[in-house]
Design goal:
The chain is mainly alpha-helical. Helix content is 69%, strand content 0%. It is built from nine helices and no strands. The two termini are 28 Å apart. The mean pLDDT is 92.
Length: 153
Amino acid sequence: PVRTRRVALIAWVLAEAENARAQASLPVDDIVRRALLLEAPKAITGDILYVTKTASPDMLRGVEQARSRASRELLDMLPPELQPAFAPYLRPLPGQAERLVQDASRLAGCLEALMEVRLGNTYFQPILDALRERVDSPFPTTREIIEGLGLVG
């Protein structure tokens, strides 16, 4: 799907930028693989709008639990010899690597909503506003990109 490719590309760019410009040592290949599989559980759970799943902590926790179960189901569908290759990327990466993947996902959501608003689809304005309030990053280069795109709340 388009969103998966968009998140993976943004994650790759952000990871490379952080490593090059901020002298970070993020595992770029792992980040891109995780980003490619980030949306995979939705094949089982279906898509849940960002504003819906973040409406309350209980809702967010429930969605995370459902996606975790869906990830295990997807892994079980693979032949046993392939499971070790995919298992690390169907669950959160350790440390800052997962944060960068999540930043890429939020940034992709902001860009998608911004595009819709600029095309005149006013339905996405409240979604864009909600995303702008939540988009932030501990990574300097990522913050610079967010600010440069005018996505700060």
